[in-house]
């Protein structure tokens, strides 16, 4: 790579970014006797100090050059007197320049130019071999022009690109000679640059002999003498075709990503599927640079596709145009393949037949991808062009991304419709329910309350929206309510929770609640509950308990009454036995026996009453 510098008459050294010697040319060795192999890898200051310092006639010259090299990026025309390897004292102009051309970009060129006998110590214009050697390090090389713009030199690689000779360019002018787009404007700019003596900097789009267009960055600047007069124009022609293509592709991909993001936002906004489909086909056609795009919905029962959205197909009927499935169409083959399908030339396609929808338009190339549904493919998104085109993997990714957005939008809309239908059914059931049904969130309070609440608590549903259920629980039931809420916070359901609520009129009502937690992202955020009015049942239970208590008290009174009656009877029997009249005594005994029989019947009734009361208490507890 560096051997081209051997053609230079000047002693030259190439330094890397760390100012370390990577090459000495043949003239350097011949002039100063320093071998390339011995110098390679040395820092330039060390090279001068070790090998060149003894050759300087002035003592401070070596130190001055070392200091300049180490402290400045470039050095221009430092004059010095040195002895050559033959012992002859010569005058040299020392310079250091940063190389900007590839592949040596960033490296430095150090030159010792022999200027002995010259009136002006300035670099000479070197032979054409120098231009060839240095210029070909840059893609399409360098150019040299006279002060008036006439061509002196153009690199061979550039001449080969445009299919011209240096003589042709000298005769007609290099910009006038080459096949450049907008040649008149380019020539006008070049002429203005020469007239105003400003730098030349322009991108030229040149058609090469290969038929391809190449983007050339042409830059140049005037070279002046000591009197500040322009003696030459020099510049480079740098091939930036790959860079421009990369910039264009980067811009295209960025625009495509932005389009996908916009479509995603559009889908999240909840638009109807037809509107989303139309947006997708328009965006895909625009950002992929094709004339046609379409959405086909698959009907598995008929193995047909229905056209639901399209751009470019002016004569087709949306919603009625049909395309056969299977191998009769690209869309059908796409479903059979379970992957994207690319067609570069429909005329040469053998995997499937082209449907009339595409043949009638003269379409040659295209891409088709699957639009996924919940359980089966929804259909196919296709893009097509009437020119032969080789689509890339990035093109496929863009179309598939658009199809995925469309699929998610359709799924979302279907889910929303199903949810709305489910909510409507739930609302209809809740509206007709005899029980109180409500939904309550921790951060919003009650969000829904069924009409039954008016019959149970006296409030209208609107009066309770946004309120907290806890605010209507009486103190008697507050502890049971809080315990139920703790279970709900753990994600557990609560069944049969009896809570006393305050009615609007100040009275109370007992409600039996069955509650289920509302869980979002693994966190309990609210509750859904059904409340049944059990006020009448609670009142009956309380009345039953009162009746049982009264029966118990009556039974106890019967037992005491029996004991109180038996004691006087015993006294009467004793008195009858002491009487002298047996007939009277017998009558008394007979009556006492009758009274005892009544008391025994009361005892049997008391026992039966106790058993009945025990049964009623057990039944009440159940």
From TrEMBL:
UniProt entry keywords in alphabetical sequence: Kinase, Phosphoprotein, Transferase
Entry keyword annotation includes Cytoplasm: no
Boundaries of every PAC domain copy: 200-252, 495-546
PROSITE patterns xref list: PAC, PAS
InterPro entries assigned: GAF, GAF-like_dom_sf, HisK_dim/P_dom, PAC, PAS, PAS-assoc_C, PAS-like_dom_sf, PAS_4
Pfam short name (any one): PAS_3
PAS domain span: 127-168, 422-466
Catalytic activity: ATP + protein L-histidine = ADP + protein N-phospho-L-histidine
Enzyme Commission identifier(s): 2.7.13.3
Record CDD domains: PAS
Protein's UniProt keywords contain Kinase: yes
Highest rank taxon of the organism: Archaea
Name this polypeptide is given: histidine kinase
Protein source organism: Methanoculleus methanifontis
Lineage of source species: Archaea, Methanobacteriati, Methanobacteriota, Stenosarchaea group, Methanomicrobia
